[in-house]
TrEMBL record, chains A, B:
Segments passing through the bilayer: none
HTH hxlR-type domain residues: 9-109
GO molecular function annotations of the record: DNA binding
Superkingdom assignment: Bacteria
SUPFAM superfamilies: Winged helix' DNA-binding domain
Name of the molecule in the record: Transcriptional regulator, HxlR family
InterPro entries documented for this protein: HTH_HxlR, WH-like_DNA-bd_sf, WH_DNA-bd_sf
UniProt keyword terms in alphabetical order: DNA-binding, Transcription, Transcription regulation
Length: 162, 162
DNA sequence: TCATCCAGTTGCAAAATACAAGCGGTTCAA
DNA sequence: TTGAACCGCTTGTATTTTGCAACTGGATGA
């Protein structure tokens, strides 16, 4: 159970928790897509994640303290997955992944809209997004600025044009 | 050969290239440890990477344009691996991984010294490091500031104390 | 000439991933 | 009250990736 760690390097330890093909995809969907239940994550995932992989990743992310699971009052079988503060603090990392992906891969134009906005917004926007996530996931007071709304508007405008 | 992509999302595309347990470890060693040959990478890797995994990752990183391989004039069997501009631009991503790892894992104190300095230095220091990497890997003119030297000095000081 | 170095490759076992089907409890409408 | 649909998974199986150890064939140096 107490998994051996390969080394004490912070990059390595981050990789040991998040260095696979799916963990950050799940976090991305919870974070940017506000998908909060298993079924929502499974049905609306862009990359077609398999149900057993999703179940495994959710378990691992909860176990390692990046997410929490709480019962959904509207449906006894459902759970609501929320980001913890540690999960929310992945925003800058994901933003850098957006930046690198935009510059060095060939992302689809429509899916690039939100990423471009997030990268252009820089650390100020990332901090505002983190505040908003603390509101949505941790019950913090609602911030004035809504990055979600800014991004939604930009996406809608781009989708209309294309 | 033309591998199917799961989606056009820039985060996903980044993950498809770098989302495994070893690719970024190899890049870290080339980037921060200035390990430039197969043998150097294999013998001095902190995490004990296996020889076949290293060979595979070097091939993939070269194939995907993050590194180049050139012959070593001093030894006909050896090659020198260098970062490309795309590889160098992973500096901010790795810096964010350092930041998250420092805050949310339990890295070893000694290995945290360099990471802490890099995180504290912020984007200015990352840019200086990138300039230095362009000098070391791409033949750009030598910059005045040497982040390598700053980091080396901090590490030596910490190692002496501990 | 011969031991050593060097950059990998090969064979095999174990683990992770992918895909499809199934399962028991819950909800809801008739 | 009953049955269909929904829900969050689990199970079984095939494929792929990883990890480990041993090995190889050429290059180098004494």
């Amino acid at each position: 159970m107490a998994q051996e760690r390969r080394s004490g390097c912070p990059i390595n330890l981050t990789l040991e928790q998040l260095g696979d093909r799916w963990s950050l995809i799940v976090i991305r969907d919870v974070m940017f897509g506000n998908r909060r239940s298993y079924g929502d994550l499974l049905a609306n995932n862009e990359e077609g994640i398999a149900s057993n992989i999703l179940a495994d990743r959710l378990k691992r992310l909860v176990a390692s303290g990046l997410m929490t699971r709480s019962p959904d009052p509207s449906h006894r079988q459902k759970s609501i997955y929320s980001l913890t503060e540690a999960g929310i603090q992945l925003v800058p990392l994901l933003a850098q992944m957006c930046a690198w992906g935009l510059a060095h891969t060939h992302p689809s134009p429509l899916l690039s809209v939100r990423a471009t906005l997030l990268v252009a917004g820089g650390p100020d926007m990332w901090e505002a997004l983190m505040q908003e996530l603390r509101y949505l996931h941790l019950g913090a007071p609602r911030p004035e600025r809504s990055v979600f709304e800014e991004v939604r508007a930009a996406y809608a405008a781009a989708a209309k044009v294309s």
